[in-house]
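# step 3/5: fold
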Amino acid sequence: MTRYKGIGKNGLVLAVMAMIAMTAVAYIYRPGSRITGELGICLPSPNIWEINPVSSWIINTVLTGAIALGGFFLNRTHNFIRSTQPVLPVMFLLLAGSNPWINYYLSSSTLICAVNLIALSILFGEYDSRNATQPMFAIGTFISVGSMFQYAFLPMTLAYILGAIIMKAFRLKELLALGMGMIAPYWVGVGLGLISLDSFEMPDITNLFSNFAKASEIFVLALSVGIAIFFGALLALNNSIKLYAGNSRVNAQNMTITLLGVISVICIIVDFSNMLAYLGTLYFTVAVQVANMCALWKIKREWLVVLIPAVIYIGFFITMILNGVSHG
């Protein structure tokens, strides 16, 4: 009989160290390659916030770690992954850390992922709820405030509408609460004079192929994202087979996370110029699928399942860094 070999605390520590090392290298070699342009609806987007570069890197790195830890405790609370092994945080740290375009400063990608984690934690507590108006209002408010700084928050609304329907917690009053939550921040901001009507304008879309990266860097970036999407979709389909026959609440929670991943993939394809904003959320959903695969299919050599993608994505990271240095 094959002995079970989980990744355990040692694997988590190694993942944290790898993530910090990759973000540090990305900071050293890419401090001047930040996206230009304005992606907020009425306020400056995170990519042009005037934050000290070191502070921005520290905040982003800490927030990435907090998302990984939050994902772990979200599972401990709701048990949507039937395992206590830290596969979810380990995979998220490795995937997020491997992308030098989003890991060396406080990026929209990290902020959107953090808000999605908060929204999931709110929604997961409302399964079969008779009154989920306050939670839906809160989710709408978080998305609305985020959209002021980055329009990529807005498509996530669809994932939570569909997710709330799946969670049996969405009726007309929840729809109205969500809408009010999305309107309220703009209403208050304009009403108090915090936001000028003149500041509302169509975002200035940034072209990834212009003044941002070389063709070789874009190719490696697109390849790494494409592989994450492909295997994430493959794992989601396989996991759904096991989940469908299981606990209905767990199935609903995982379907909601899968929907969030699907929305992210659609946005990456349709809104390619702003694809970086959706990557943190994509990485989180892929990490959930990997963790579910290990738990549902009772994989004995769990460490190997994590090690293989870790090596591949660290390789992608090194390739992108070397390309950047050679073109710098």
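# step 4/5: annotate
Residues 215-244 form the longest helix (30 residues).
# step 5/5: archive (pending)
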